[in-house]
Design a protein that fits this description.
The protein is α/β, with parallel strands linked by helices. It is built from 13 helices and 4 strands. Strands 2-1-3-4 form a 4-stranded parallel sheet, with helices on both faces. It is globular and about 70 Å long.
Amino acid sequence: MLKSLYKTRAVVVWVEDELTKEYLRTLWQKDPRIGFAVAAGREGVSSLTNDARSAPDQRTNVFGVRDRDFGETNFPDWTNADTFLFRLPAYEIENYLLDWDALAGCAGEELRRNAAEIERRVKKRAAALTWWAACKRALNQIHTELTSGFPADPTQEEMSCLTGALNYVLKTNNWHCRACGLANGPLDKSAISDSLTRYHSDNELALDNASWLTSFPGKRLYREARSYVRGASDDGTAVAADIDLAKAIANWQVDNKRPPSDLVTLRKCLLQRAGLAHTR
């Protein structure tokens, strides 16, 4: 099935999950030139995109779209010929669903909400998550510090004896010595406390302007909005309910000529990279 997708679509995009696939597919009006494959996570997007493009037949029509999370977007590089992994400007795809007018337009008949009510409800939820988001960001920083320079898997030819294997594990990129030294540096209690306090302050400042809409983890906020405008769902149906509302929001954004500009640019870049015109 994957081979068929690669052959029949001018552009194939690996995405992290079904919600991203269905939202972008609907937002881009089911453009028959673009096909989607679900990688189940951001690392999967990177590895599967790399695998496809480095295969013997070099599938240069394959690209990856990832959430930014706490990293940096590569939006300025989207038009570069050597960019094939696109990291979103927003924290994650759900941030683009925090469209108050669209959410109001997609509210259930029994739960009519206006845009202002929805925004207040979701912002209140964001205010309750400032320490949670700060902790997530601090943990991401710690993970980055601990794994920086971590060795990739060796080639079979490199491993022929214990000494060679041991040296590879301990000395590649000097990651082992660096990691051992982190306990007295950026990973001590005081440094972690400082990071948590700084990130929490950043989150509270973001609530005073519109930046929280793109900087806060969007999945929890979108789930709050969905529950508010469509009603709560049992755990077994929550994902399906999230996707159903995401598709409705995409249709509303298209019908009202208000698709997120980042995602309009993304589609345009993908088509241009495949030598196709952005016609609609």
